[in-house]
Amino acid sequence: EHLLKVSEICKKVFPLSDEELKNLSQIIGRFHDLGKATSFFQSYIKEVAKGKPPSHLKDNALKTHSELSAALLFYYLRKIKNFAPLPAFLAFLAVKRHHSFVEDAFENEAFVNKTLLKEQIQNFVPEVFKETGLEPFLDFSQEEMSEFFSFLQKELKPFRTMRKFIRSFGSLKDFSLYVNFLSLYSALLLA
User: Is the CB of residue 180 less than 8 Å from the CB of residue 90?
Assistant: First the structure.
């Protein structure tokens, strides 16, 4: 329910008139917390709800959700919905950093922690995923997991350095990409 609400708010508060980006903002809202559907995060949130200090998960990276949410979103946008690389990366970046500050998109942002994500995915709670209203787009079999990580590595490669970005997309002559990113990011933060 939370993801559907945030999705609608993102679309409503999106500051630009571009319908494609507005729809992307809505998809971002639906995916931004999808990574919370792991047993690690579910245990953490249950302990917090009971008023217990979640000591065993306090600094545990396994309970984080933003990077997993971003990776699933990027895969969904590129592989399932055939979005172009740039808008998909902007969405990835907005979700990956929605609990922190984006300093430099070309400084480790296009990397994913495969070991962490693999363990989180192996502990995905299907019932929580069903609550998103999304059709399952990954079955997380060993073969599909391998394909998922290969796809991420290949598709995120142009965003790893400014030089690779320019080689893939050319130099940017205006600030529209930056404005688009800030619009997507701020819509998520406002929701």
Answer: yes
Instruction: Say which residue the tokens 């939370």 belong to.
Output: 2
CB 40 within 8 A of CB 63: yes
Write b or e for each residue in 6-32: b if 16 or more Cβ atoms lie within 10 A of its Cβ, otherwise e.
Answer: bbebbbebbebeeeebbebbbbbbbbb
What does the block give as tokens for 93?
A: 């970046």
Q: Which residue has the tokens 């000591």?
A: 55
Centroid of chain to Cα 61: 16
CB of 74 within 8 A of CB of 52? no
In this structure, what is the dihedral angle of CA atoms 179, 182, 184, 189, given to the nearest 10 degrees? -160
Tens digits of pLDDT across the chain (191 residues): 788 889 898 888 988 888 999 999 999 999 999 999 898 888 888 888 888 766 665 558 888 899 999 999 999 999 999 999 999 999 999 999 888 777 666 666 668 888 999 999 888 887 777 776 777 777 777 888 889 999 999 999 888 877 888 888 877 776 777 788 888 888 888 87
pTM of the model as a whole: 0.87
Q: Which residues contact 90 (CB under 8 A, 6 or more apart)?
A: 24, 177, 180, 181, 184
DSSP state of 109: T
Contact between residue 109 and residue 96 where contact means Cβ atoms under 8 Å apart: yes
Dihedrals phi, psi of 157, to nearest 5 degrees: -55, -45
